[in-house]
Amino acid sequence: MRKLLISILLIVVAALCAAESRAAYMIILKNGGTIITSYYRYEGKTLVFSSPDGMVGISREDVARIESADVVPPPAISRKVPKTGEAAPAAAPAPAQEEGTQLPSSPASPSEAKQEKVDIQGYQDRMAELRAQLNESVERMQNAMSSQDKEAEAQARADMRRISAEIYRLTDELKAKNQGKLPEDWWKE
Known about the structure:
Blueprint: H1 2-20, E1 24-29, E2 34-37, E3 40-43, E4 46-51, E5 54-59, E6 63-69, H2 110-115, H3 120-146, H4 150-177
Antiparallel strand pairs: 1-2, 1-6, 3-4, 4-5
Helix pairs in contact: 3-4
């Protein structure tokens, strides 16, 4: 009986340790990208984090912020690395934007940025769309929490993070094209 209790206790402790080790962080980059990791640390001007392929470092200047994440970091993935002379695998296509929401393209050089006329109204329209999507996601999350639907809650939370990242990417893009300035009513609804 004693051996059984000890065995059960060890299993419970192991399960609790495994659950605790699933902590995750979302590294949000200034370019709008996100990275999910279970571990990170700073080494001088470099942020080092764990990835499925091992430890990776990026410039600290490329990081907008780091948040705790409610998702599990991806497990290690076996990837084929091209040998010298082999073609690299094709990159995934960029996600298509909704019809009518295309933003002005980035200028090729800083001198073009000064000459380019910024379509502020286009940015404001896109911001209004993103706000509406974010509000809808918040409402879905509240409904999911009320009905205790964990799956729907997790999906709504992921949508909120994705939309928020897009809002910050849009904000950074507009600031870059508009000499570091945002319209006065940018953050107002």
